[in-house]
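Write out this protein's structure.
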Amino acid sequence: MSKLMSILKPTMNVAFATFLSRILGLFRVMFESMVLGGGAVASGWQLAFMIPNMFRRLFGEGALGTALIPVLVHTEEKEGLGRVRADLAVVFAALGCILAFIVILCSAGAMLIAPHVHILHWKIALNLLPLLMPYTILICFAGVIGAVLNSRKEFFLPALGAVLLNIFLIAGLAAGYWVQIRENWDQWIAFLDVLAYLVLASGAVQLGLLLLLLKIRGVFPAFRKESFKHLQVLPELWHLVLPGMIGGAALQLSFLADRLLAAYLGPQAVPALTYTDRLIDLPIGLFAVGMGSVLMANMSRSAAKQDFDSMREDLEYGLDLVWFCCIPIAIYLVLFREPLLRLLLFRGNFTLQDLHETAWATLFLGMGLPFFCSMKVILPAFYARKQVFWPLKVSILCIVANFLMNLALMWPLRQGGLALATVLSSLMNNSLLLAILYREGIRIDLVRLGKNLGRAVFSGAIAGTSSLLLPVCARCFGLRTGGITLTLILTGILFGLAYLGIHWLCGGRDLQAFLLLLRRRKKGNSGNG
C-alpha cells in the first residue's frame, strides 16, 4: 500500500497541475482570440512565440530532461550528492552556451531580415522575435531543473510552469481587452511588446522559484573550478540524448514547416490552426495522457515478466477505450465545431471570417483526435520493452510523408489541407507501429478491434445525427432551445446518452473493459506494495 501511495500521490499532483494548466490554457485561447483576433496580429504573435516554444520542447522538455534523471540517480548512488552538483554545473554551463548561441543567432537573423519584409504578419513576427528569444533560455533551464527535481521526488511545483505563463498572459490580454485596441498600429506594436515582456517575466519567475527549490533540496549546481575538471557526464548524456534529439528535432522542424506553409497561405491560417490545436489538446491532455500512464505501468510489469499475452490484452483494452471515448468527442467536435467556436472565440477582435477559417481547420483536425490519442496507448508497448528506435524511425518517415502531403493538400484545401495532412500522417504512424508490434509477436485481435472501431463510429454517427436534428425539431414545434450555450448543453446531453445507448445495444462492453483494466492495475500495485 505504501508503494501504491508513493506512485499515486505524485501522479495525482501532476495530473492536477496538468488539468489546471489546460483549463487556464483554454481561457488564454479565448482571450487571445478576443484581443488579437484571427488575422495578421494573431498570426505574427503566434509565429514569433512558436520559435522559443520549439526550442523548449527540444531542450527543456524533450530527451535531455528524460536522459538526465537516470544519469543523476546513478551518479548519486555511486559517487554521492557532491558529484551530482558538480555534474549539474557542467551540464548547465554547456546548455547555457548552446542556448545563448541559438538566441543570438535567431535574434540577429530576425533583425537583419525584418527591414526587408513587408507582409504584415511576417513583419510583426520578425520584430517580436528578438524580444521573445531570451525566453528560450529561461524556459529550457526551467524544464531541465524540473527533471532534476523529479529525480528528487518533487513533482507538483515543476509541473506548474505553464500555469504561470497562462496567468501572466491572461492578465496582459485582459488589460488589452479593457484598452480596446482597434486599428492603431502603434498601440498594437506597444501591446505586443508588453505581452513579450510578460512572457519573459513569467519565465524569470518560474526559473527563480525552481532555482530556490533546487537550493532547498540541496542539489544546486556547484559552480566551482574543480567541477569543470571532470566532463565525463557530457559524453554519457549525449549518448543517451542523441536518439531522442534526432526524433525531437525532426518533429519540431515538421511543426515549423507546417506553420511556415500556413503563414504563406495568409494571415488567418496560422491562428486557425493554433486555436484548433489548443482545443484538441484539451481531451488529449485530460484523457489520453492518463490512459497512457495506466498502460505504461501495466505494460512495464508485463514486459519485466516476459508476459506478452498480458501486454497484448492491455494494448487491446487501451485501444478499445481510447476509441470508445475519443471517437464520439471527435464526431461531436466536427459536427458542432461552429457553435463551439462561436461560444469560445467569437467576440472582440475575432471576426466572422476568422471564425469560418478556424472552423475549416477544425473540420479536418478534429477527425484526427482518435489517432492523436491512440498514439499515447501504442507507444508504451515499445517503451515498456525499452525499444526506442522503431518509434523514432517510423516518426521520421511519417514526418517526411506529412511534409509531402502538406505540399499536395494546402493548395486546394488551404489550412484544412495542412490539418488533413497531419491527420493522415498520424494514421500512418498508428498503423505502422501496430504492424511492427504484430510482427514482433504482440498479435492483437485485429478483427475484434475493427468491430469495436466500427461500433464506436456507427454509434457516434447516429448520436450526432440525432443531436443535429434537436434544434430543427424544436423549431418545427415552435420551441426555443435558447442561446448557443444552452443549445450545446442540450445537444451534448442528447449526444452522450444516445451514443452510450446505441453503443450498448450494438454489443459494446468498453466500460466493463475499463473497470477490468483498473482492477488489474490495482491488483498489480497491491502485489508490489
